[in-house]
Amino acid sequence: MRIAVLASGRGSNLRALLDARAAGRLDAAFVGTFSDRPGAGALEIARAAGIPAHALPPRAYADRAAHDEALFSAVADVQPDLIVCAGYMRLIGDAAVARFAGRMINIHPSLLPAYRGLHTHQRALDDRVPVHGASVHYVTAALDGGPVIAQAEVAVRADDDAERLAARVLAREHRLLPACVALIADGRLRQLDDAVALDGTRLTRPLRL
Ligand code: GAR
């Protein structure tokens, strides 16, 4: 399976994917990493691993649609079977979502459908929820709203602040994302629920990983 990664930030989830491949837990080829931020740590991690790294800053394009078109044309050029959004922080337009329907997944730091969008850890703390976590889901036109493949739960502690909680969630993300990509790369996800990949309907019960 050919995988393209989209990332805006430090790239620890990309590193977790590469570590999983090195450890024999993920049978996949990483064919390109793409970022909207030229300084993203994820691009450095990709280059160090010999993976082509591309920066497409939005300011170089007339509008959001033009940036999306350039980005996803570059992604299409590497002929990925799967696009993994690993900390990609821009909204993805409907045209790109439709172009890669069922072939693009995202990791999000909450137990979806709770806390779509930003500042998920602080919002979970403000609500005093006992359990928080992370989700991997298919990307659809609904922000953080596509079918959830799997989730990891993290207990919230009385003395947590957003930073401490984020760190524990991130540690779980580093196991969750490679496990989900491996499910898809090995063709096992379709055995678990064909409907997820093929028609985009929501799993009745996301996997707990
Ligand atoms: C991760 O916590 C990921 O879940 C989150 O960004 C972080 C990226 O960290 N993604 C989102 O918030 C997407 N809306 P990383 O760059 O170290 O992988």
UniProtKB/TrEMBL annotation:
N(1)-(5-phospho-beta-D-ribosyl)glycinamide binds at G11, S12, N13. It is an enzyme of class 2 (transferase). It catalyses: N(1)-(5-phospho-beta-D-ribosyl)glycinamide + (6R)-10-formyltetrahydrofolate = N(2)-formyl-N(1)-(5-phospho-beta-D-ribosyl)glycinamide + (6S)-5,6,7,8-tetrahydrofolate + H(+). This is Phosphoribosylglycinamide formyltransferase. The record marks D144 as: Raises pKa of active site His. It comes from Coralloluteibacterium thermophilum. (6R)-10-formyltetrahydrofolate binds at R64, M89, R90, L91, I92, N106. CDD domains: FMT_core_GART. Pfam families: Formyl_trans_N.
